[in-house]
Design brief:
Blueprint lengths: L2 H14 L6 E5 L2 H8 L16 H11 L2 H12 L16 H19 L5 E11 L2 E11 L9 E7 L17 H18 L7 E7 L2 H4 L1 H13 L3 E7 L26 E5 L7 H16 L9 E4 L13 H5 L4 E6 L25 E2 L9 E2 L3 H19 L7 E5 L4 E6 L7 E7 L7 E6 L2 E5 L3 E10 L12 E5 L12 E3 L10 E8 L8 E7 L4 E6 L5 E8 L6 E9 L2 E10 L2
Parallel strand pairs: 4-5, 4-6, 6-9, 7-8
Antiparallel strand pairs: 1-2, 2-3, 3-5, 7-9, 10-11, 12-13, 13-16, 14-15, 14-17, 17-18, 19-20, 20-23, 21-22, 21-24, 24-25
Amino acid sequence: MTFKLILFLILISFVTGEGMAQTNILSTNGEAEKIMKGNYNPIMYKASKVIDHPDSISRGIISRVSPDSIHAYLEKLQSFKNRNTGADTVSKIHGIGAARRWVYSKFAQISAIHENRLIPSYLQFDMGICGMGRHKNIFAVLPGTDTTDKSVILIEGHIDSRCNGVCDTACLAEGMEDNGSGTALVMELARVMSKYSYHHTLVFLITIGEEQGLYGAEAFADYVKLKGIKVKAVLNNDVIGGIICGNTASAPGCSGAGSIDSTHVRLFSFGGFDSFHKGLSRYVKLQYTSRIKPTAKVPMTINIMTPEDRTGRGGDHIPFRNQLIPAIRFTAANENGDANVASGSYKDRQHTQADILGVDTNNDKIIDSFFVDFNYLARNTVINGNAAGMMGISPNTPDFTVTTNWDRKLKVTITTQTQYQKYKVGLRTLTNDWDSVYTFTGTSISIDVMPANYSISVASVNNRGVESLFSKEILTNVLGVETPSNPFKSIELLQNQPNPSDEATMITVMVNAPMGNKKAFISISDLEGKQVEQIPIELNLGINEVQYNHGYHRTGTYIYTLLIDGVPIQSKKMMFIY
């Protein structure tokens, strides 16, 4: 490597922030920090009229989230022209500085309307990104009414925008879908949810530096760890308001250029079995299905995706996941582009100056054809708010045991948090979602089931009918599943989940006794016996998983085989559908 090349790489690292770490991370408002740490008197922030019933919260969010309000936020965000992380911080009307001051002022206005209960702040941190050394996330804290459990709930979206060049601060970078949509969602929920009271503190977080490497979210994740702030869950929203599929889209993406989807939303999260991130996704869907969907004018379908994010992509939920905090990403069903702007054939809007609010089709200087669907974005806002609101007043999560017997019954017994009158148990087999959710009184239930491998989790239900987050999962086998004989009696290859799948699936191996130093692989072959991929897998005691990315828009039946020291042990079929 030449000396000039070394200097060039060092310069690129400084400009984008790659290889560097955030320093001097601090909240500019000490009051906000004390509240997030749980060091406050809830009486000081009590609403004069406490509204905390789950029905009032859900119905209030449904009725008060406004497509017009979201539209107004987006119009203002587009007026800043360029919200790149390294853009102008001095101008009063253009650049990232003006944008973040405006968001802060809106949080302050919302607070004034709601008895000054919403506490705005910046999270300031130092890092060289796009030639700028100091950056600020914007957040607002709504204090909880009970500090017994000090964990907070985060709703987030990033405000920074970009064009082709990751540090281009001169281009038109209105960034309406990516990610004015997420910013508007967070701001709208701060406005709507501040009317209500929650046991847990809510934090409305708008981050910076996402486009250069998730740096703003990473700073906040490092900050909560450093300060000992407990986080119950993170709901990240990114590219959440568009409904038009581009010529390209990051897999698992949309069905083709120009196709429209305004009734589906994707939830991405890390892991498979016993993933508290996937558990959070299931909780969000359960709250929507039980509280919103029955009366929704336009029902939504929530798709729990297998990967943590789209192929080759990432989002602001990942730094929180790295800190072992439950975190998921909401993304629209359709994206206009895969961000491969370096491609000479790229014609889509994402990561270009064409990511605008819409176009004027009749030359009257008024936008009349929109690329962001405000009604769709409002529906996704409601899904977020309803889930956060129910978590905000939810009971404690229990532990449990499970036993099986020869008459194909599962017996689930609650072992902690036994003070509640009702509980729920969720059973999964081949998908990321529950097959069934049972409600029971007392502390145990026996369930008649068919032979299968079941992933089981439980939740408490309080006297207002609100579920806790669900517990860890326990995997159990109900007798009747045929297990091919193999020389390793203490190991089992499980059915992949989900199955059938679209773009990715999790393959699981259960190890019941120490295996020693053995090399293991999952070999994947087509029905003609041709190997298409071989993936290494560890054989640690318990559950071991690997993710197989088959590729979007491909179909077929495949055979996956567990190989140990070159010997085939077990095989199963899996299907990919489009």
